[in-house]
Amino acid sequence: MAFEALIRMVSSSSSSPSSSIFTHQYGYNSTLLMNMTPNSLHAPFYHITDPWKINIASSKTFNLLAPIIVYWVVCSMWHHLDVMKYPYFEKRRIHESPEVISRNKVTFSQVIKAVALQHTIQIFLGWMWFEDQDVILKREVYVDHLQKMSNLVPWVADATLLLLGRRTGEKVLLKHGESLVAWIYWWGIPTFQMYFAFCLVDTWQYFWHRAMHTNRFLYRHFHSHHHRLYVAYAFGALYNHPVEGFILDSLGSAVAEKVALMTLRQATLLFVISSIKTADDHCGYRLWWDPCQLLFANNADYHDIHHQAYGIKSNFSQPFFTNWDKLLGTQMSREQADSKTRWKKLAHDEHYSEHDKHNIISQGHAKKID
């Protein structure tokens, strides 16, 4: 946990200043530090104290099932739109509805069975991965938050005075120091951890995803399963070979939450957000007001390009940002995709499966929205 790691560093510096790498430049100003030290929790809405709610939030069952339930609920909503064909949403489909039936090489029931299998494996692995509830309660719930914030104070003082200068910094800290420490503790550090975890997930998935396309063995035996969906839809987001599902999704998320030093509840939020995002990326609709499409350039339209023959060697980034595609030259924009007059044979790419090699598409561009 980031707070505990920070506390260990602070404790070591205060107990043995001469031997510690970290020394607080302004630690001598005890009046300033005392003024900054919170005397009350200033706890936000997500800090729960009800024992019943604490037991639920800290249980393995809740944290394992939450992202899975969210995935099925969100995908069911998208599926409802697919079935009902409301005019507003039909105008915003990336592909015409009949294409789903004519071009996809796997049935809806096969997709559902594969997703259910992956979630079963995910529950089994997660049960072994997560610690027992008693350990979680002791380490993450029944802790002295005031003491942790107190240990954070010298670090906030040093950073503020370094950024603003001593005179201005001291004025700010004397007036707002306590609320600043509380904000950093409850919001700043957790927000940074979540962003850092997003970046870790993206890095893990980009290089594994790219390897799945550039390595003949990996594509043919594992990743080709997912590309049986030429026209993606929400439930198909987790239509993968079980080995790929374990490596890209389960293992990647587990590594991210460990490296980002997240608590169990933070990790669960990460998994829930990832489940919503990956379903949205495969939904098949362009919706400017959709938070996942509004806030992230890596969205349904961006990922749809990757599912097409002309973009199968592009847009490997998923599920949040497009940074790795930009840095390594594997990005294809919709404008570039629309410049393709026809989708071409993939027969020259020997590592693709047979149905991929001979997939000649007679349709034109993906449908444009006026």
Automatic annotation (TrEMBL):
Q: Where in the cell is it found?
A: Membrane
Membrane recorded as keyword: yes
Question: What are the start and end residues of every segment in region (Disordered)?
Answer: 348-370
One GO MF term on file is: iron ion binding
GO BP? lipid biosynthetic process
Q: Give the transmembrane region(s).
A: 62-81, 184-207
Identify the keywords attached in UniProt to this record, alphabetized.
Membrane, Transmembrane, Transmembrane helix
Origin species: Kwoniella dendrophila CBS 6074
Mainly localized where?
A: membrane
Compositionally biased region (Basic and acidic residues): 348-359
Protein's name according to its UniProt entry: Fatty acid hydroxylase domain-containing protein
Domain annotation Fatty acid hydroxylase: ranges: 196-330
> Could you name the Gene Ontology cellular component terms for this entry?
membrane
